[in-house]
Amino acid sequence: MSYPDQVPARRPAAVTTAVALLGLMALAAGVYAVTILLALGGIIDRFRVAAAGTAADPGDVDGVVRLLRLSTIGAAVLTVLVALLLVGLAGGLLARRRAARIGVWVVCGSGLLAGGCALAALVGQRTGPLRLGAGDRGVADLFGTLGDAYPSWWLPVNAGVSVAQALGYLAVAGLLLLPPAKAWFAPHRSVPPASVPPHPAAAWAYPVSDLPHGAAAPVPPGSDPPPGATAPTPPPR
Predict the structure, then answer these.
(1) In this predicted model, what pLDDT tens digit does every residue of 145-161 receive, in sequence order?
(2) CA distance 185 to 179
(3) Using CA atoms, how far apart are residues 69 and 82, in angstroms rounded to an integer?
(4) Backbone angles phi, psi at 206, to 5 degrees
């Protein structure tokens, strides 16, 4: 006699909500990456126009433009990779993989740290201008002009993205710490089949009339034959 495996528990609402938040954050990351790439051309154009009125050399202007282009493209690529990672982790949560749950916590911690650093750098870029020596006055003017080349929505949108990212990571990590989520990702074991040792008198379950003529039912070692059973006939000498 055997029993079927335990039926898996229904996915709790906490896990479903965490998966939905990860998907929403991945979508927002993709939109953000496309937005900053589309805004890059206008930022560079405004920067070149503003840099023409400074004492910076054309080579310095080109160097800042390359730095701006590389940093923006690198940030967009990194954002897309993070979005793909979030989608993969969401799929792992739906597949009930414990490694995905641990990976979400690692990503949440790293995302909180990266978001805080990005917000601090963004605020410092606007409130703390770069200070260089007297010989680098032209470069200092370029970096001061670069801050004005960004569109007016750049600072509030980036600040809002950083705050929303931090709140999203906190929410996902908290949802996966709830008891229903913990029980969902706990290892499940199947119920072992019930093993009942045979009764010593099981061999006597058949009536003697069903045995061949002259045959005796076997007697298990260490057990007595039940009442009415025929004892085995010893072989002739």
Answers:
(1) 887 888 888 888 888 88
(2) 10
(3) 20
(4) -95, 140
